[in-house]
Queue: 2 jobs
Job 1
Amino acid sequence: MTAPIEQISSFFADAAMPANFPKSVLRFRNTRWAGRLGLGGLSESDWIKHFARFEPLAGNLKAPLALRYHGHQFHVYNPELGDGRGFLFAQVRDDSGRLLDLGTKGSGQTRWSRQGDGRLTLKGGVREILAANYLEALGVNTSKAFSLIETGEELHRNDEPSPTRSAVLVRLSHSHLRFGTFQRAAYHDDAEAMAALIRHVIEYYYPDCADEALAVAAPALFERMAETTGKMIGQWMATGFVHGVMNTDNFNITGETFDFGPWRFLPVSDPNFTAAYFDQQGLYRFGRQPGQGLWALQQLGGAISLVADVDELSKSMTAYEPAYQESFAAHTLALLGLERQSSLRDDLLFLQDFYGWLTESGANWPQTFFDWFGGEASLKRAANSPQAALYERPDFEKIRKQITTRTPVRVDRLEHSYFQAARPVDLLIETVEALWSPIADQDDWGPLHAHLDKIDQARCAYQWPR
Ligand code: AMP
Ligand code: MG
């Protein structure tokens, strides 16, 4: 066996062939993560050989695998899904021993492409690099953008001026197995596939759930998935991240943010903000994300009930809400550099006031978090903020008091040069478009790389525990 996925690939994968691209120009290489995978030493031509032509990594999968899955798209069940423009290329371990996937986007058609061309636009690839790096910098559990290579084709899309440039992305993820993978087994009433999937996921991702009895192991696994999903969405809500398409094929098994095509970051707090232009009803709008996470879990639980008791699974699902609340509070306070209170309830009361003010005042989201990192320790920084006038208004008094009377944590981080600037690095839509324009107009990649450097500074400034 060359890769763990082969344990279940007869149920959940089909061999795939990479497209033969007319060009391959390296545009982005994630050197930090390549180093952590032991791939830091690859020459540029070897990088292109593996991540544009997809020649196998030594001792790894001999041919790429297009993964089979189903999923609810905007709450409508679709049994026609599967990797239609990507595949699993290799499975690797990082320096802490975690099993990670190198998966692709835009690598060509597969048997699951339906009417699609199997391609990714260069702009889509650039957007994914930006979002994945920024989420990581803000401490959110996320897949990573590993490589982006421009491929020299002309693509036609409704949401970009066309023809538009093409690219192939490699994504590093702590599994590309999805809620929709379980749904596929349930749809086909295939208890053998479901059992194999559950055993596989436990063995490689949740070993603490191991139990010989599937009736015990399955609800235990579901509980852990409910927790990790709740934790991820708590992090989204604390960073103003709008995923855009919370379909059940876009939830992975380890609570990693992924497949966030139309993503946005909120400029101001707005529960009704919707990211995807095709989400006319606002189903996945910002304020609905916690509820939609639960909805997706309900579908997952329904699928797992093929092999486990419904009451046990319902009990497991109750882990979602507290995990979400805990994460929302913990992450908000970590981003503000403030200590937790002894009771979660007190923290949630603060969050209610804080986010209530953020919404009503129309304050800039990233600026506010940046200005008040460390609370009292940032009084002077906040007084010099571009939005300092907002902090002088009477409606802020209560918030100021709460922020400045809480004990700051990790004030040493304020010494990082990132916190000396007047503004935080942001990824608001204007910023993204301003980074894309020079690429589209003059093939100038300088501003993008400069912004990625700033994002990396933010990551170093926050210094999230590994
Ligand atoms: P997504 O919206 O990226 O989660 O994709 C939903 C489904 O559509 C998945 O099965 C994708 O593989 C497929 N898909 C999206 N875009 C394309 C494309 N250009 N060509 C082929 N399949 C695609
Ligand atoms: Mg998807």
Job 2
Amino acid sequence: MKTIALAGNPNSGKTTLFNALTGSRQHTGNWPGVTVEKKEGRLKNHEDILIQDLPGIYSLSPYTLEEVVSRAYLVKEQPDMVLDIVDGTNIERNLYLTTQLLELHLPVVLAVNMADMVRASGNTLDLKKLSAVLGCPVISISALKKEGLDELTAELAKPQPTGHRPDSFEPQVLQALEEIQKLLADKVPPQSLYWYAVKAFERDERVLEELHLDPEQTRRLEAIVTKVEKEYDDDAESILTTQRYDYIERILAGCFTKRATASSLTWSDKIDRVVTNRWLALPVFVLVMWEIYTIAMGQTVVSIGTMGTDWVNDVLFGEWIPNGVETLLTTLGVGDVLSRLIQDGIVAGVGAVLGFVPQMLVLFFLLSILEDCGYMSRVAFIMDRLFRRFGLSGKSFIPLLVATGCGVPGIMASRTIEQDRDRKLTIMTTGFIPCSAKMPIIGLFAGAVFGQNAWVATSAFVIGIGAVVVSGIILKKFKVFAGEPAPFVMELPAYHWPTLANLLASTWERGWSFIKRAGTLILASSIVLWFLQSFGIVNGSLSLVEDNNVSLLADLGRMLAWIFVPLGWAGDMAWKATVATFTGLIAKEEVVNTFGVLYAGLGEVSEEGTEIWAAVAADFSAVTAWSFLIFNLLCAPCFAAMGAIRREMNNWKWTLASIGYMCGFAYVVSLMVYQIGGLFTGEVTFSVFSVVAFALLGLLLVLLFRKGYSGRDDTIHTAMALESGK
Ligand code: GDP
Ligand code: MG
């Protein structure tokens, strides 16, 4: 059996090619020990060849989990051949990985993908010349249009010579690598020696750990590396990166011709002229998001999401299921308490959450269009420009983007950020972004209090990003976080038509995990909540109560409700809002689930919405709705996300600081919204809290505009000096 590893940058077309080459004969699973997808399949018409789809990687330096997995596989397992797929419309950036793969001492076949788009762009690539300089077969293909696949299959089936090392580095570096190879000669297998030398030169932490150098060897290695660093006046990793890109530029100069005239912009370039324009980019982005929220959650003729949700709420969970359940319960002769548990607890609680499924599916579908067609990469690029001004890199935007689905992978995505301080800052703020579980909370208030206005959801998104930016500005001015942001290189793939199958798959994947949670976690807590709100202490003994205001849950809620008095959570809704906020820590859908259980049967079904919505509308004013919504969007995330913060920070102090910061920030913003907003609407009279609110606003402005810490960032240099014994 011959194994071929399929490697390439994210979005280069790996999955498409893998499917085309293997047909339906494939297995998916996870890589041992991690939840990164592992796929393998047999090459069509060549049963003895196994293709292994590696997770998308930009380089063989382990910044992300995917990169760690792929690198471990390539270096340790040594497949028989590497099929490197590059995006032909972005060849320069993609060849960066190729230069590293060629150092692995494995046979490499290079597939230049997107031939159709390359042709359309008018650029030309001389494959023969490229193949000659790289010393490996180079084949032009289109994975999507199934062009060139036979030729590629033929090359894969043939035995290929071992890839020859690219001529990327200058003599000083090569000299240093020579010396390092001597140093490591008895530690690693000879075929991997060069690769290990390169990684040791870069001071790659994982490799150094694995090598177990003794102090004398460490000292010699450090001396070799520092000498080169002095000569170039740059750090080792940047030296290699620069020389690799210089090398790519040199080879492409010989075989790549860009279409000459400037007037021949591709349509992709034309779109980018508007979409990434310095002045238009942000307004366009806000407009796009607003349009998406209008379709998914608004109240217009095009709001398919809302129509679906209305139907589920009014018909499915408004009539069919309750009526059906009632009939069933009566027929079965089920007792009063149990049928109330089922109707007011389970059906109302789970139903309140499931009602938002249509809106969420539409939202996910539209977001996957943006991702699939390439617009989201533009957004990261636009955000880099914005974030950079505040000392954050666009790299911090990727975790935020992931967090719109779920905060847990969002927090994990922060691993791509190399600088520790920026990574910490990103972990601390990723939870501000409204994740999919927070969408029902937004939907509930948008529906119950704000007449389905699409601006509610849009502003929740803007408030989330705003909280990140404001936190970035404020925290960057403290010494622990100060420093230049990391450079952010990213490719802007040409716009693609998204494929329907991809869109449906990713929509379903996100939607299904939401539905699954409603059936398990949310269901279980509906039951617990219902019991706690149906029983109370009456005359010293536990008994069933009619009014949940005297229930156990109300007593519990009231014990903590004082915390939120300054935020305007008052009257009967105070304990309900408090309980909802705390159950929201289990999972954010719980907030709506809790309202579903607590408000069941309290409102009237009407034209405007469900009975629960009506009951919520009676309890919340616009200002208190905002104060509640903002607090729940920005405060500590759910337990799963807190766990992710703990894992990524790998330190309790930082974990607690992050959670404390989020809660504090949420509290301050909600306090200002209620106290200052309330003064305008007349709900609030001027009190000591108003003074506090204005004082906090002043403090926030001072923190925003004060001069930051600007000392030189000496830590790295000091650490290096210590290590080399100076
Ligand atoms: P992966 O991230 O490397 O797995 O990339 P995918 O296989 O998911 O492909 C990314 C996008 O590129 C998808 O929208 C594909 O439909 C598209 N794509 C892949 N190959 C081609 C191609 O040859 N031509 C064009 N025009 N699009 C392609
Ligand atoms: Mg893929």
